[in-house]
Amino acid sequence: MMGINRKKCIIFVCLFLLLIIPFCATGEETSADLGLVSLDVQPSSAPEAPFFGRITAVNYGHMISMSRKVILYLSLDDEITPADYEVGSVQFSFLRPGETAHREFLGTLPDTIPPGSYTAGAVFGAGFSLTPDPNPENDAITGGTVIIEGTYTRPQEWLNEQIADIILDFSNEERALRSLGALTRDSDLDIIAVEHSQDMAKRDFFDHTNPDGEDPVDRAERHHYDQSRILSDGSSFFGIGENIVKIPVEKNVYGFGEILNDDPHEIARVAVESFMDSPPHKEALLLPAHEKIGIGVAFDGEYYYATQNFF
């Protein structure tokens, strides 16, 4: 038995070496090359207050990447260094060549950070790799100005926009799993969706038909949105589709646990999972004829309202 195990070990080592040798021999052509392409962080916060952001990375290389950690900092100048205030980190692992990935983080700012104006930045840390990073110049990125104040005021509109962006990502992931085309964000549909979410939050109702009797088609007509088109099979199509969801925060929700008000990733996840758990909402989200989407999010202090409009 010992002899058999030893043979297996020898065979495994030989195979592993065969895998490594081409990487060493061909260099950059067969290496991974992770680069940071965007950093979006909330525009304001305070010491010991929540801080949310999104980072996007892409693998510019020619082989799948290993794991690399990205560390986020707030700096008093435009140069990001480890001496700045570290505010969080995310991990990017196993990105295929050409693949783009988003990572969200939610942290708490250190109590030692003084009020002021800061530059947000992110830098790739060390990670396991069979080959050196061929382009270290794309390993760092800055992401705008963050105002740190003495007391925390939640940047609600910014958070609403982040939730909408992540809802789009999750929605297209569900479609991709079923080999359906990605939905394209439509700014005119966004206006219709945002208005309906804000209306539900302001007038305390939850319905596709508002208190004035308007349904989604009525609202689209009022905004002069062209709802007519010809499908690929030659048939005509009129109207827009709509999904809505109402999500409580800062309380336990059955099946989801406690949903934090400052966590756009979790709120967006709950929204899309709720759509996928409801047959008519799932049908609208996955309808092959739908090509465009508008997304609107509003908050009334207790509930998030999210609307998807499709065309």
Automatic annotation (TrEMBL):
Gene3D superfamilies: CAP (3.40.33.10)
Superkingdom as given in the UniProt entry: Archaea
Location of the SCP domain: 169-310
Cross-referenced InterPro entries: CAP_dom, CAP_sf
Pfam name, any one: CAP
Designated name of the protein: CAP domain-containing protein
